[in-house]
Amino acid sequence: MEEENEKIIEEAQSAAEQATTSRGLYEAKMKFLGRTGKVTALLKSMREIAAEQRPAFGKKVNELRERLEALFAAHEAKVKEKELASKLESERVDVTEPGRHTAKGALHPITRTRNELIDIFAGMGFEVFEGPEIESEYYNFTALNTPADHPARDMQDTFYITDEFLLRTQTSAGQIRLMEQKKPPIKMLSPGRVFRSDDDATHSPMFHQMEGLVVDKGITLCDLKGMLDQFARTMFAETSKTRLRPSYFPFTEPSVEVDVSCSACGGKGCPLCKGTGWIEVLGAGMVNRRVLENCGVDPDEYTGFAFGMGIERIAMLKYGINHIRLFTENDVRFLEQFKD
Ligand code: PHE
């Protein structure tokens, strides 16, 4: 018996030493102390032993069990320690290592310019209103004092969807939609995509406009000029000035083209402004009384001004971009230059 116990202990010792994981050690332990293990088998065999030998036998088996338990407990602590050490090693973080570079996106220059424009005009009390891109002839032309036989319809090459519906050629359509919904005083800013059958270095079949509309009692061309000066100073340079030249739009009377002093040369004349010192940035004018009437606003009580600018054009001037196609090519080398 004594000898046999020592043999079992030796066996257990070597099984425990071979186990490298808690799981392996547990399995080894169960071979001796588990329900089908060797010690349990010994206890079961007590029945076959003569009654007077049983207490001594039982004592020996108990001793064996205690020694085995102690043996496995000692190994358990060692294996756990090793497991923890290798886990810590594998999860080690070098806090002194320099950070990895992660690519960060940026806003598209058009979105950026659009947001900047909204910021400037929101600061003057304008509210943003967005109209639909698919418009009816009525909103895009007729209500804007441009009837079917009006020659101004040829000023813009329109993409028609049906006889009645088209891709809007100008955000001015939003003026009508807003005035139908809201009575003056009005201070509206309407950004959006517009579409024209046009394609060269400065024109693209899809581009963005920013429309502005102010309607109230006693609004004059001076209000338009003052607001434009403020816009030019914030958008371009502290010293920027604006000038108005007579023009024509069916929905404004009088109509003007607005130039901003060239911020590249300060107005002296350079290749950017073609030597004139001025750059054309937008169209504007006093809202035509016919347009107010079409929207149920009394032109004897209210007056207003409107303006419309191409966001691409403003971005090209501000960032010195020389071809409109760069905005839609989505070349990251171009886009990356607009990170903050
Ligand atoms: N809608 C005009 C255009 O597309 C611009 C404009 C807007 C002119 C508002 C006057 C008033 O060219």
Name the strands of the widest sheet in spatial order: 1-4-5-9-8-7-6
Largest sheet: 7 strands, mixed
Order of helices and strands: HHHHHEEHEHEEHEEEHEHHH
Radius of gyration: 42 Å
Shape: rod-shaped
- The level-1 CATH class of the largest domain: Alpha Beta
Task: Tell me the fraction of residues in β-strands, as a range.
Answer: 15-25%
Strand elements, count: 9
Poorly predicted segments: none
Give the second-level CATH assignment, the architecture of the largest domain.
2-Layer Sandwich
- State the fourth-level CATH superfamily of the largest domain: Bira Bifunctional Protein, Domain 2
Number of helices: 12
| CATH fold-level label of the largest domain | BirA Bifunctional Protein, domain 2
How is this structure best described in words?
By secondary structure, this protein is of the alpha+beta class. The protein folds into two domains: 2-90; 109-338, BirA Bifunctional Protein, domain 2. It has twelve helices and nine strands. The strands form two sheets. A seven-stranded mixed β-sheet has the order 1-4-5-9-8-7-6, sandwiched between helices. A hairpin with a 2-residue loop joins strand 6 and strand 7 (252-261). Helix 1 (2-18) packs parallel to helix 4 and helix 5 packs across helix 10 (311-319). It is rod-shaped, with a radius of gyration of 42 Å. The model has no long low-confidence stretch (mean pLDDT 90). Bound molecules: phenylalanine. The site of phenylalanine has 11 residues, from strand 8 and strand 9.
